[in-house]
Amino acid sequence: MKLIYFAWLRERIGLTEEVVDLPPDVRTIEDLMQWLSERDEAHAHAFGNRRIVRAAIDRRHVKPAASIAGAGEIAFFPPMTGG
Amino acid sequence: MGVRLQRADFDVGAEVAALAKGRTDIGAVVNFIGICRAGAGDDRITAMTLDHYPEMAQAELERIEAEARSRWPLQGVTIIHRYGRLVPGDNIVLVVTASAHRRAAFESASFLMDYLKTRAPFWKYEERANGSGWVGAKDEDEAAASRWTQTGDSDA
Protein backbone atom coordinates (compact mmCIF):
# COMPACT_ATOMS: atom_id res chain seq x y z
CA MET A 1 0.00 0.00 0.00
CA LYS A 2 1.39 3.38 -1.00
CA LEU A 3 0.90 6.18 1.51
CA ILE A 4 1.59 9.84 0.79
CA TYR A 5 1.68 12.79 3.17
CA PHE A 6 1.25 16.54 2.82
CA ALA A 7 1.93 19.74 4.76
CA TRP A 8 2.63 19.26 8.48
CA LEU A 9 1.91 15.52 8.38
CA ARG A 10 4.82 15.14 5.96
CA GLU A 11 7.05 17.26 8.19
CA ARG A 12 6.17 15.35 11.36
CA ILE A 13 6.62 11.93 9.77
CA GLY A 14 9.70 13.03 7.84
CA LEU A 15 8.59 11.28 4.65
CA THR A 16 6.84 12.35 1.46
CA GLU A 17 5.62 8.81 0.85
CA GLU A 18 6.16 5.24 1.96
CA VAL A 19 5.04 1.75 1.03
CA VAL A 20 3.70 -0.42 3.85
CA ASP A 21 2.57 -4.03 4.24
CA LEU A 22 -0.57 -4.03 6.30
CA PRO A 23 -1.84 -6.77 8.59
CA PRO A 24 -5.27 -8.10 7.53
CA ASP A 25 -7.07 -6.56 10.52
CA VAL A 26 -6.35 -3.03 9.19
CA ARG A 27 -9.50 -2.51 7.15
CA THR A 28 -10.46 1.18 7.32
CA ILE A 29 -8.81 4.61 7.25
CA GLU A 30 -9.39 4.79 11.02
CA ASP A 31 -7.65 1.40 11.50
CA LEU A 32 -4.77 2.57 9.32
CA MET A 33 -4.27 5.76 11.31
CA GLN A 34 -4.26 3.74 14.53
CA TRP A 35 -1.77 1.23 13.09
CA LEU A 36 0.51 4.02 11.79
CA SER A 37 0.42 5.89 15.09
CA GLU A 38 1.73 2.75 16.85
CA ARG A 39 4.75 2.45 14.57
CA ASP A 40 7.05 5.13 15.99
CA GLU A 41 7.10 8.53 17.67
CA ALA A 42 7.04 10.46 14.38
CA HIS A 43 3.88 8.74 13.18
CA ALA A 44 2.36 8.99 16.66
CA HIS A 45 3.00 12.74 16.61
CA ALA A 46 1.55 13.14 13.11
CA PHE A 47 -1.59 11.16 13.95
CA GLY A 48 -1.84 12.45 17.52
CA ASN A 49 -5.02 14.38 16.81
CA ARG A 50 -6.69 12.06 14.34
CA ARG A 51 -9.93 14.02 14.39
CA ILE A 52 -8.40 16.73 12.20
CA VAL A 53 -6.44 14.49 9.80
CA ARG A 54 -8.11 14.15 6.38
CA ALA A 55 -7.67 11.24 3.98
CA ALA A 56 -8.09 10.49 0.30
CA ILE A 57 -8.18 7.09 -1.38
CA ASP A 58 -7.05 7.15 -4.99
CA ARG A 59 -7.44 10.94 -5.05
CA ARG A 60 -10.94 11.15 -3.62
CA HIS A 61 -11.90 12.45 -0.19
CA VAL A 62 -13.06 9.73 2.20
CA LYS A 63 -14.33 9.51 5.78
CA PRO A 64 -12.41 7.70 8.55
CA ALA A 65 -14.80 4.74 8.36
CA ALA A 66 -14.05 4.17 4.65
CA SER A 67 -12.74 0.74 3.67
CA ILE A 68 -9.19 0.66 2.30
CA ALA A 69 -9.78 -2.60 0.41
CA GLY A 70 -8.43 -2.32 -3.13
CA ALA A 71 -6.88 1.11 -2.55
CA GLY A 72 -3.86 2.00 -4.68
CA GLU A 73 -2.77 5.28 -3.08
CA ILE A 74 -3.84 6.64 0.28
CA ALA A 75 -3.05 10.26 1.12
CA PHE A 76 -3.15 11.89 4.56
CA PHE A 77 -3.22 15.65 5.02
CA PRO A 78 -4.46 18.46 7.26
CA PRO A 79 -7.67 20.37 6.50
CA MET A 80 -7.20 22.23 3.23
CA THR A 81 -6.32 25.93 3.14
CA GLY A 82 -6.14 26.82 -0.54
CA GLY A 83 -7.87 29.60 -2.42
CA MET B 1 -11.29 27.37 -20.15
CA GLY B 2 -10.98 24.46 -17.79
CA VAL B 3 -8.80 23.84 -14.77
CA ARG B 4 -5.11 24.68 -14.57
CA LEU B 5 -2.54 24.31 -11.81
CA GLN B 6 0.55 26.37 -12.44
CA ARG B 7 3.54 27.98 -10.78
CA ALA B 8 3.39 30.99 -13.12
CA ASP B 9 1.17 34.04 -12.74
CA PHE B 10 -1.98 34.47 -14.86
CA ASP B 11 -3.33 37.34 -16.96
CA VAL B 12 -6.90 38.06 -15.86
CA GLY B 13 -7.79 40.08 -18.97
CA ALA B 14 -6.49 37.39 -21.31
CA GLU B 15 -8.41 34.67 -19.44
CA VAL B 16 -11.69 36.62 -19.55
CA ALA B 17 -11.17 37.42 -23.24
CA ALA B 18 -10.44 33.76 -24.02
CA LEU B 19 -13.67 32.69 -22.34
CA ALA B 20 -15.86 35.21 -24.18
CA LYS B 21 -14.09 35.18 -27.56
CA GLY B 22 -16.41 34.58 -30.52
CA ARG B 23 -19.46 34.12 -28.27
CA THR B 24 -22.67 36.12 -28.52
CA ASP B 25 -24.63 34.13 -25.94
CA ILE B 26 -22.70 35.38 -22.89
CA GLY B 27 -24.34 38.19 -20.99
CA ALA B 28 -22.30 38.11 -17.79
CA VAL B 29 -18.74 37.30 -16.80
CA VAL B 30 -17.68 37.26 -13.15
CA ASN B 31 -14.07 36.90 -12.10
CA PHE B 32 -12.67 36.38 -8.64
CA ILE B 33 -8.97 36.85 -7.93
CA GLY B 34 -7.49 35.66 -4.65
CA ILE B 35 -4.38 37.66 -3.72
CA CYS B 36 -1.65 37.00 -1.15
CA ARG B 37 -2.02 39.69 1.50
CA ALA B 38 0.62 40.91 3.91
CA GLY B 39 -1.37 41.72 7.02
CA ALA B 40 0.08 44.32 9.34
CA GLY B 41 2.61 45.00 12.08
CA ASP B 42 5.11 42.51 13.51
CA ASP B 43 2.95 39.55 12.47
CA ARG B 44 2.84 40.49 8.78
CA ILE B 45 3.38 37.82 6.14
CA THR B 46 6.63 38.05 4.20
CA ALA B 47 6.01 35.05 1.91
CA MET B 48 3.59 32.17 1.41
CA THR B 49 4.28 28.73 -0.04
CA LEU B 50 1.42 26.72 -1.49
CA ASP B 51 1.86 22.97 -1.14
CA HIS B 52 -0.51 20.79 -3.14
CA TYR B 53 -1.37 17.23 -4.19
CA PRO B 54 -1.08 17.71 -7.96
CA GLU B 55 -3.09 14.79 -9.36
CA MET B 56 -5.85 15.06 -6.80
CA ALA B 57 -6.01 18.88 -7.07
CA GLN B 58 -6.59 18.63 -10.81
CA ALA B 59 -9.24 15.91 -10.39
CA GLU B 60 -10.97 17.64 -7.47
CA LEU B 61 -11.12 21.02 -9.23
CA GLU B 62 -12.59 19.30 -12.30
CA ARG B 63 -15.22 17.65 -10.07
CA ILE B 64 -16.04 21.05 -8.51
CA GLU B 65 -16.29 22.62 -11.97
CA ALA B 66 -18.63 19.84 -13.15
CA GLU B 67 -20.78 20.34 -10.03
CA ALA B 68 -21.08 24.09 -10.79
CA ARG B 69 -22.02 23.38 -14.42
CA SER B 70 -24.73 20.97 -13.24
CA ARG B 71 -26.21 23.60 -10.91
CA TRP B 72 -26.11 26.71 -13.13
CA PRO B 73 -26.40 27.30 -16.90
CA LEU B 74 -22.80 28.29 -17.61
CA GLN B 75 -21.21 29.09 -20.96
CA GLY B 76 -17.71 28.87 -19.59
CA VAL B 77 -15.63 28.29 -16.45
CA THR B 78 -11.92 28.88 -15.88
CA ILE B 79 -10.17 27.93 -12.65
CA ILE B 80 -6.45 28.64 -12.23
CA HIS B 81 -4.68 27.88 -8.94
CA ARG B 82 -1.02 28.70 -8.44
CA TYR B 83 1.43 26.74 -6.29
CA GLY B 84 4.94 27.35 -5.04
CA ARG B 85 6.33 30.37 -3.19
CA LEU B 86 4.44 33.66 -3.45
CA VAL B 87 4.90 37.05 -1.84
CA PRO B 88 2.30 39.62 -0.72
CA GLY B 89 0.62 41.18 -3.75
CA ASP B 90 0.96 38.03 -5.85
CA ASN B 91 -2.12 36.39 -7.36
CA ILE B 92 -3.06 32.99 -5.88
CA VAL B 93 -6.26 31.88 -7.58
CA LEU B 94 -8.54 32.93 -10.43
CA VAL B 95 -12.12 31.83 -10.99
CA VAL B 96 -13.98 33.10 -14.08
CA THR B 97 -17.60 32.16 -14.80
CA ALA B 98 -19.65 33.13 -17.84
CA SER B 99 -23.41 32.84 -18.24
CA ALA B 100 -26.30 34.45 -20.07
CA HIS B 101 -27.32 36.28 -16.88
CA ARG B 102 -25.47 37.75 -13.95
CA ARG B 103 -27.06 35.77 -11.13
CA ALA B 104 -25.77 32.43 -12.39
CA ALA B 105 -22.32 33.91 -12.97
CA PHE B 106 -22.11 35.48 -9.48
CA GLU B 107 -23.56 32.49 -7.63
CA SER B 108 -21.46 29.89 -9.41
CA ALA B 109 -18.25 31.89 -8.83
CA SER B 110 -19.10 32.11 -5.13
CA PHE B 111 -19.92 28.40 -4.99
CA LEU B 112 -16.66 27.50 -6.75
CA MET B 113 -14.58 29.49 -4.26
CA ASP B 114 -16.40 28.07 -1.22
CA TYR B 115 -15.91 24.50 -2.47
CA LEU B 116 -12.37 25.13 -3.65
CA LYS B 117 -11.36 26.38 -0.19
CA THR B 118 -12.67 23.30 1.62
CA ARG B 119 -12.10 20.48 -0.91
CA ALA B 120 -9.14 21.30 -3.16
CA PRO B 121 -5.94 19.79 -1.72
CA PHE B 122 -3.80 22.89 -1.19
CA TRP B 123 -2.02 23.96 2.00
CA LYS B 124 -0.51 27.34 2.83
CA TYR B 125 2.75 27.78 4.70
CA GLU B 126 3.25 31.36 5.84
CA GLU B 127 6.58 33.01 6.56
CA ARG B 128 5.95 35.76 9.10
CA ALA B 129 8.13 38.37 10.72
CA ASN B 130 7.42 36.64 14.07
CA GLY B 131 7.82 33.02 12.92
CA SER B 132 6.52 30.67 10.27
CA GLY B 133 3.98 27.90 10.09
CA TRP B 134 1.14 26.14 8.33
CA VAL B 135 -2.12 28.02 8.08
CA GLY B 136 -4.99 26.39 9.96
CA ALA B 137 -8.32 25.76 8.24
CA LYS B 138 -11.08 28.17 9.17
CA ASP B 139 -14.46 27.03 10.48
CA GLU B 140 -16.13 29.85 8.53
CA ASP B 141 -14.88 28.32 5.26
CA GLU B 142 -16.62 25.04 6.14
CA ALA B 143 -19.76 26.96 7.06
CA ALA B 144 -19.61 28.88 3.77
CA ALA B 145 -19.30 25.65 1.78
CA SER B 146 -22.08 23.91 3.71
CA ARG B 147 -24.62 26.61 2.79
CA TRP B 148 -24.65 25.20 -0.76
CA THR B 149 -25.73 21.78 0.49
CA GLN B 150 -29.48 21.40 0.29
CA THR B 151 -31.25 19.39 2.98
CA GLY B 152 -31.16 15.75 1.95
CA ASP B 153 -28.15 16.14 -0.34
CA SER B 154 -25.30 13.81 0.37
CA ASP B 155 -21.88 15.44 0.38
CA ALA B 156 -19.25 12.73 0.85
From TrEMBL, chain A:
- Gene3D superfamilies linked to this entry: 3.10.20.30
Q: Which Pfam families match?
A: ThiS
Question: From what superkingdom does this record's organism come?
Answer: Bacteria
NCBIfam families assigned: moaD (TIGR01682)
Q: What is this protein called?
A: Molybdopterin synthase sulfur carrier subunit
Q: What is the lineage of its organism?
A: Bacteria, Pseudomonadati, Pseudomonadota, Alphaproteobacteria, Hyphomicrobiales
TrEMBL record, chain B:
Q: Where is this region: Disordered?
A: 134-156
Positions with biased composition (Polar residues): 147-156
Q: What highest taxon heads this organism's lineage?
A: Bacteria
Catalysed conversion reaction: 2 [molybdopterin-synthase sulfur-carrier protein]-C-terminal-Gly-aminoethanethioate + cyclic pyranopterin phosphate + H2O = molybdopterin + 2 [molybdopterin-synthase sulfur-carrier protein]-C-terminal Gly-Gly + 2 H(+)
Q: Which InterPro entries match?
A: MoaE_sf, Mopterin_biosynth_MoaE
**EC nos:** 2.8.1.12
Protein's pathway: Cofactor biosynthesis; molybdopterin biosynthesis
Provide the family line.
Answer: Belongs to the MoaE family.
On assembly, the entry states: Heterotetramer of 2 MoaD subunits and 2 MoaE subunits. Also stable as homodimer. The enzyme changes between these two forms during catalysis.
Instruction: State the function annotated in the UniProt record.
Output: Converts molybdopterin precursor Z into molybdopterin. This requires the incorporation of two sulfur atoms into precursor Z to generate a dithiolene group. The sulfur is provided by MoaD.
Q: What is this protein called?
A: Molybdopterin synthase catalytic subunit
Q: What is the originating organism of this protein?
A: Labrys monachus
